[in-house]
Design a protein that fits this description.
This protein has 243 residues and is α+β, with helices and mostly antiparallel strands. Helix content is 47%, strand content 15%. It has eleven helices and seven strands. A three-stranded antiparallel sheet has the order 1-2-3, covered by helices on one side. Helix 1 runs antiparallel to helix 2, helix 2 (14-34) runs antiparallel to helix 3 and helix 9 packs antiparallel against helix 10. The longest helix is centred in the N-terminal third of the chain and has 23 residues, at 66-88. The protein is elongated, with a radius of gyration of 26 Å. The termini are far apart.
């Protein structure tokens, strides 16, 4: 498709040339959104290879990471579908990417680094703003990535499932809150060892077991003195008061 759209740009037919220029400029936008400091430089016509420029280096598409290539492939495929609909419906060229449609994505986070999970859906909408997107995901980054998204949870009930609207609980929430929610099983952003220590500390505080609490806090400070420095606040304040 990339080579075909590039080929259209050189048509002697003014209408085809204008179509090719529009599609190629959209391709450049797609690839720029799909890469970290990269862009579509040109198509090597002798070998029919799109050439990507990252910094001062030129590479072929197959040299991209699987995550970047995943996004490029799917976005270019979408553009191809928009092109087909636009031609069939004889739409003005400028309206090709404005076509309304329903896009279904299963496990949207697949192959994507968390950085790209946070921008994936919004990037799709930046190029194709009139798509309605329905997707499944296990990623809190995806859930938190789109403003005012409707969020549903599928709860297994033996031989069937119940679909619950949990938009008010999860829409427009930070990743940390989503991650520790019931949907994600109260998953902590810490390692298992630190999570267990934090649970034990909470239990010790509830039981007013100061000895165990102090012991656990000493362990946490030893593991990560910078992050858990707040555990020393009470001690520091006490020292200041006595001073």
């Amino acid at each position: 498709l990339i080579c075909y759209f590039d080929y259209l740009r050189s048509s002697d037919n003014p209408q085809e040339k204008r179509l090719g220029e529009f599609l190629y400029s959209t391709l450049k936008k797609i690839i720029k959104l799909s890469l970290d400091k990269g862009e579509l430089a040109y198509v090597r016509r002798a070998t029919l290879e799109p050439i990507i420029k990252q910094g001062e280096v030129e590479i072929t598409l197959d040299k991209l990471s699987s995550g970047n290539l995943y996004f490029v492939q799917r976005m270019v495929s979408l553009l191809g579908k928009m092109y087909a609909v636009g031609i069939l419906q004889e739409k003005p060229i400028e309206e090709f990417c404005l076509t309304k449609g329903l896009l279904l994505i299963d496990e949207a986070e697949n192959h994507l680094h968390p950085k790209w999970q946070k921008t994936f859906i919004q990037n799709v909408l930046d190029v194709f703003p009139n798509l309605q997107i329905i997707l499944t995901t296990h990623s809190p980054f995806i859930v938190s990535s789109v403003k005012n998204a409707r969020v549903y949870v599928c709860e297994p009930q033996g031989d069937h499932s119940i679909i619950k609207d949990v938009t008010t609980e999860y829409s427009n929430k930070p990743i940390e809150e989503i991650l520790i929610s019931d949907v994600f099983g109260g998953t902590s952003s810490f390692s298992t060892d630190i999570s267990d220590l934090l649970k034990e500390r909470k239990q010790a505080i509830q039981k007013q077991d100061k000895t165990t609490q102090n012991k656990i806090e000493a362990q946490l400070l030893n593991i990560n003195p910078q992050y858990f420095a707040f555990l020393n606040v009470e001690k520091m304040l006490s020292q200041l008061t006595h001073a």
